[in-house]
Design goal:
The complex is a heterodimer. Chain A is α/β, with parallel strands linked by helices. Chain A has 5 domains: 1-69, NADH-quinone oxidoreductase subunit E (Arc Repressor Mutant, subunit A); 72-149, Glutaredoxin (3-Layer(aba) Sandwich); 167-355, NADH-ubiquinone oxidoreductase 51kDa subunit (Rossmann fold); 365-443, Roll (Ubiquitin-like (UB roll)), CATH 3.10.20.600; 450-527, NADH-ubiquinone oxidoreductase 51kDa subunit, iron-sulphur binding domain (de novo design (two linked rop proteins), Up-down Bundle), CATH 1.20.1440.230. Chain A has helices spanning 11-17, 21-32, 37-46, 51-58, 80-97, 142-149, 167-175, 177-187, 199-208, 229-236, 238-252, 266-279, 301-308, 337-349, 351-355, 388-394, 426-432, 450-464, 470-488, 493-509, 513-517, 520-527; strands at 72-77, 108-113, 125-129, 135-137, 215-220, 256-261, 286-291, 332-336, 365-372, 378-383, 402-407, 413-414, 440-445. In chain A, helix 11 packs across helix 14 (337-349). Chain A is globular. In chain A, 57% of the residues are buried. By secondary structure, chain B is of the alpha+beta class. Chain B has 2 domains: 11-85, Ubiquitin-like (UB roll), CATH 3.10.20.740; 137-280, 2-Layer Sandwich (Alpha-Beta Plaits). Helices cover 20% and strands 19% of the residues of chain B. Chain B is built from 7 helices and 13 strands. Chain B has helices at 29-35, 87-103, 111-119, 155-160, 199-203, 212-219, 271-275; strands spanning 11-16, 19-24, 59-62, 69-70, 81-83, 137-138, 143-145, 171-173, 180-182, 209-211, 228-234, 243-249, 252-257. In chain B, the strands form 4 sheets. A 5-stranded mixed sheet of chain B has the order 2-1-5-3-4, sandwiched between helices. Chain B has a 3-stranded antiparallel sheet with strand order 6-7-10. The longest helix of chain B has 17 residues, at 87-103. Chain B is globular and about 60 Å long. Chain B starts with 10 loop residues before the first strand and ends in a 9-residue tail after the last helix. The chains are: A alpha/beta, B alpha+beta. Chains A and B meet through helix 3, helix 4, helix 18, helix 19 and helix 20 of A and helix 2 and strand 8 of B.
């Protein structure tokens, strides 16, 4: 038992092992379903870290409980795509048959969850189970949730994996780091995570930065509502991702890489673990998987670093940028799953063959996640240049009468009729105000309650703001209140003026991209008349 | 006399509000502004602590930057064009103060905050004025915590942790608007790692952390800063030589601070210097 009156948290002493804090909290959470005071003290003593700091980290994440919690917790998605698919019905069935949200019912409990990244399946639940592996069920019904909560649900077996040859990695080794980076530059590939930064410049930046240790980090914290391409990539071909990371490590001079995967992607994590095991140790880089714990903000690159380092997953003020000072303060290459997964192809076939696809500024192929009211929701790989309308048609066309399309996730915006025909490239999107973001395209028809959808987006940002900076901490919650009034028809002109000011200050003064984009979807919903006015 | 062998500091040329200025290459924008007698509002920033980038009140415009830039943490660069007086900045700062007023009881905020709020014509009711409702945490005879007044500036966390005391008794718990400053599992201060240095009180800008003596007098309506004098002395408990400022009202010490610019303390003390004044006066 730790001595409660002593903080074993000397700064330098703690620095060495602090990155083990989140994995330790996960271990306790997985084992007994919550992190008890005694367990937290024990972890604090062993790492060592001050208990108050460990508590601050534990309480930051949705998937870590610090109070006694039922052994099985079903996190049922009620985010925008699931709501459009009838998720509100699922929620009311759960309320009627199991009980209110967050109320223990025997050994089980259900709560609402932000987007779980299974949007092509219509509904989803993530189940945390004390003493057993967590699992995702999609699509899910109220009966299945009930069977999970009473412990009678049977877990399906994981799929088997094949081992590829890694010929691109072999080729990269013969080419050498400089030639590899050159191919990446020639390919013109831009980051697929949302910010669309040219990968070649980033890779050169890390390679040229001075520092004894350099890191490669793969951002697999895919949490943008309506986005599921990274999960699909990992589950269907984890090796192409691992190969891309190994090539990147070679190209920038890193010997250690992390894959930070969102805590709800447990199946994908298992696939990655198995793939890592199958590759053996001849990869030239030590790749370690780190699991998030339920916090959208950790997809922001500097928040992700803080999370790996064992701190609260809050963003850092930039500059310095990760290429100079990233993970553990070292030069760090951080890219999205889809970006790394494109690398083996670029090395195998040459950067110029990649650059021939798409447009001049938006080269190559891109994965789009088309979901909502379309006939065949799913991941669609297309050459850059396709329009939103074409993508919706590719997905079998809209079901019913198309009412609205949201691109780029909750951080993106609703499109006008004219914007549906804008090619989805970085340059056209920038000029026409169409956000590609993470590649999410969500279609809604006239049967969907757009007030509910808009409100859910506002709720999402209020829930997911980390709380560090005032514009976002207060702005997201003010935005939610005002949208609530607009939705219920109790709004006044002042509400619109205030919403304008809230949007401005979040966009202009927040510390990171979450705050910068938190008003986009709401403002566009009002602009095109999805809520407010005569809608 | 030993000649200094330190190299000349590297200087950069920047533009501040359309005027050319020469600045130290490692200075922040805020350093430069203050050196030019150009005042910039701050809440979370304190000279003796690392910038935390929370309040965003110090934001300025930097040419080429898509968003506003916090002056407290941004290092100047050669050729940087900074402006601190645009309507865009004023609007942002006004809204931020209005955000504070909607989430915090600012009644005891420092004079700087009140001056800026009046200068920017802040409407504290714009987003609904905050109504205090939390119970004040009184767990000992030394200091109280009134989180209705907490602006989450993180100064106390920094002072308790790596920037001064290295005790780490408190940190931020939770996330978003509902996050709070907390000990682990919200245990009481006597049950926490707190060593009662009181450095958190010393850095709090809004009176959320307060000497119990001050709190009691405010409750009894006897606290009157107009009747207080400040006597500077040196702490007699050990040989470090910390400067103390004894705040005295009616010939009794009512609280103790240390000057921020005192190079021994940087404003920080220990439990003895901060609270060990009982021997000076008969305790009731």
């Amino acid at each position: 038992m730790a001595d409660d009156h002593v903080a074993y948290g000397g700064f330098h002493n703690a620095a060495e092992n602090r990155h083990l804090l989140l994995p330790s909290l996960h271990a306790v959470q997985d084992s007994i379903g919550f992190v008890s005071h005694g367990a937290l003290n024990y972890i604090s003593e062993r790492i060592p870290v001050a208990p108050a700091e460990a508590y601050g980290v534990a309480t930051f994440y949705d998937l870590i409980a610090t109070e006694p919690t039922p052994a099985r917790v079903a996190r049922v998605c009620d985010d925008i795509v699931c709501t459009a698919a009838g998720g509100d019905q699922l929620i009311s069935t759960l309320e009627a048959e199991i009980g209110p949200e967050g109320a223990p019912n025997g050994e089980g409990m259900w709560v609402r969850s932000p987007c779980l990244g299974h949007c092509e399946k219509g509904s989803a639940a993530f189940i945390q189970r004390a003493g057993e592996t967590a699992l995702t069920i999609a699509p899910v019904t109220a009966e299945v949730v009930a069977s999970v909560l009473d412990g009678t649900h049977e877990t399906p077996e994981s799929p088997r994996l094949y081992t590829p040859s890694f010929d691109a990695l072999v080729k990269a080794r013969t080419m050498g780091a400089t030639a590899v980076r050159n191919e990446v530059t020639v390919s013109g590939i831009r980051g697929r995570g949302g910010a669309a930064f040219p990968a070649g410049i980033k890779w050169d930046g890390v390679a040229d930065a001075s520092g004894d240790a350099k890191y490669v980090v793969c951002n697999a914290d895919e949490s943008e509502p309506g986005t599921f391409k990274d999960r699909w990539l990992i589950e269907t071909n984890p090796f192409v991702l691992l190969e891309g990371i190994a090539i990147a490590a070679l190209a920038v001079g890193a010997t250690k890489a992390y894959i930070y995967i969102r805590g709800e992607y447990r199946e994908a994590e298992n696939v990655l673990e198995a793939a890592l095991e199958a590759t053996g140790s001849d990869f030239g880089v030590d790749i370690e998987i780190r699991r998030g714990a339920g916090a959208y903000i950790c997809g922001e690159e500097t928040a992700l670093f803080n999370s790996i380092e064992g701190f609260r997953g809050q963003p850092r003020q930039k500059p310095p940028f990760p290429t100079q000072s990233g993970l553990f303060g070292s030069p760090t290459l951080i890219n999205n799953v889809e970006t790394f997964a494109a690398i083996p192809g670029i090395i195998r076939d040459g950067g110029d063959s990649f650059a021939r696809l798409g447009t001049k500024e938006s080269t190559g192929l891109k994965l789009f996640c088309v979901s909502g009211k379309v006939a065949k929701p799913g991941v669609y790989q297309v050459e850059f240049g396709v329009t939103t309308r074409e993508l919706i048609n590719l997905a079998g066309g809209a079901v019913g009468e198309l009412r609205a399309v949201l691109t780029g996730g909750a951080a993106g915006s609703f499109l006008t009729e004219a914007q549906l025909d804008v090619p989805l490239t970085f340059e056209d999107g920038r000029d026409a105000g169409v956000s590609l973001g993470s590649g999410a395209i969500m279609a809604f028809n006239t049967e969907v309650d757009m007030g509910a959808i808009t409100h859910r987006i506002a709720e999402f940002f209020a829930d997911e703001s980390c709380g560090l900076c005032v514009p976002c901490r207060v702005g997201t919650s003010q935005q939610l209140e005002i949208v609530g009034r607009i939705r219920s028809g109790t709004d006044t002109q002042t509400d619109y003026d205030n919403l304008d000011a809230v949007g401005w200050v979040m966009r202009d003064a927040s510390i990171c991209g979450l705050g910068h984009t938190a008003a986009n979807a709401i403002e566009s919903a009002i602009r095109i008349g999805l809520i407010g006015g005569d809608s | 006399m030993i000649e200094s062998t330190l190299p000349e500091p590297r200087m950069v040329e920047i533009t501040l509000n359309r005027t050319a200025v020469t600045a130290h290459a490692d200075a922040t924008i805020l350093d430069v502004c203050r050196a030019q007698d150009l005042d910039v509002p701050t809440m979370c920033f304190l000279e003796t602590l690392s910038p935390f980038n929370s309040c965003r009140l110090c934001v300025v415009e930097v040419a080429g930057s898509r968003t506003l830039v916090p002056a407290c943490s941004r290092i100047v660069e050669s050729g940087m064009e900074i402006s601190t007086d645009s309507e865009r900045i004023t609007d942002a700062r006004r809204t931020l103060y209005e955000f504070y007023a909607s989430t915090v009881d600012l009644s005891l905020a420092d004079a700087e905050t009140k001056n800026w709020m009046s200068k920017y014509d802040v409407d504290p009711d714009r987003f609904g004025r905050y109504e205090p409702h939390r119970a004040v945490k009184i767990q000992d005879d030394l200091y109280i915590r009134d989180y209705d007044k907490c602006v989450m500036c993180y100064r106390c966390v920094a002072a308790c942790g790596p920037d001064a005391q290295n005790t780490f008794a408190i940190d931020v718990a939770g996330r978003g608007l509902s996050s709070t400053i907390s000990t682990e599992y919200d245990v009481t201060l006597p049950d926490s790692a707190c060593v009662y240095c009181g450095n958190c009180i010393g850095v709090c800008p809004t009176g959320a952390l307060m000497f119990k003596s001050e709190y009691d007098m405010r409750e009894a309506d006897t606290w009157d800063e107009g009747r207080q004098s400040i006597t500077t002395t040196i702490c007699s408990f050990c040989g470090v030589g910390c400067n103390l400022e004894l705040h005295v009202q009616d010939n009794r010490v009512v609280k103790v601070t240390s000057p921020m610019d005192h190079d021994v303390t940087n404003g920080h003390l220990c439990i003895k210097g901060r609270f060990g004044y009982g021997y000076l006066q008969e305790e009731k």
